[in-house]
Amino acid sequence: MTEFDWQAKKLAAQCPELAVGATHEALLHTINALFAPLNLSFEKVLELGGWHHLGGVVNLNMQPIASNLRLWAETESGGEIETLLDKCSEQILFATKISGTTLYFTASTGDKPQDFLQIEVEVLQEVLDRPLSDPDFLPDSVEEFLEPVDYPHLEPEPVGKPHYRFRRLQAMAEVFADQNFHSRHVQNLLRFMQDWQTSSAGHNDAVFCQHWVMVLQAYQGSDKAEHYNIKPTTTFAEKVADFPENHGLSGAEMAKALHSFDRKVGYPFAWYFLMLNRKGVPTTVAEAVLRDQMEAYAYLPARDLKILREWEQRSYNV
Fold first, then answer.
1. Fewest CB within 10 A of the end CB: N or C in the chain?
2. Are 68 and 144 in a shared domain?
3. Count of C-beta atoms within a 10 Å radius of residue 171
4. What pLDDT digit, counting tens, does each position of 216-249 carry?
5. CB within 8 Å of 255: residues ≥ 6 apart
6. Are 150 and 248 part of one and the same domain?
7. Domain encompassing residue 41
């Protein structure tokens, strides 16, 4: 177990004890206090919410009946959906769901864009989801009972207090090294990182892990070990709408629009990386910029123009 792992274990133990705040400053302070001996300083760079999973069962007074809806349903039914429906009709019961938000904290550990640590902490809140009994809904199986389609849902009224749960800490350089380099997605991903390092963004004061996180999806490989699929995700939260190319800009006007966009995002050549990530910047912007370069408008640094021309020859996205 590495020193990082030891500190992560301590963080996992402390997370449930911390009060959830609007800005999560107490959590960030705890993280940095734990990792200060390792000369690491983390920043909270992104919150990804809107996901949920099954919760438990409560009665009309919001008193808990069971903490695990699936286990409760399987136990009460004995495998028979009719038995379960009869029990649900005997009293007013509600299913809950766990509403979640993932907080991403990052700390740079080296010069390459993938040289950083990433901590994920979940904010979990149990809320009301739906009544367990509805005369207009008769599921054919326990599975349909658990995951009903077109079922009336309630306002997500809080059942319990929100709390933190440590998800994981990953050294991104190790996650990248573990990838299947024969995969087209991985090749594109490595090209994305190389483009950053070579571009004006990589030669600027911008730190990659302050502007991008890696959303990880775990899977079990043929070696039975846990591996991860990687999805780069920008920390730029604002919606990119009606990009100036749609107005037919070119030349000096296009240069001004691109520079303004880059400043808003926080680093040079940002429009290119958001285009690769399909975050609101259409490829027609790159095509318009390349046309401008053919007409002797030299508003791109040479290193960025080289990358853009390579993209023109062999386009990709991540």
1. N
2. yes
3. 17
4. 998 887 787 788 999 999 999 888 766 655 667 8
5. 292, 297, 299
6. no
7. 3-170
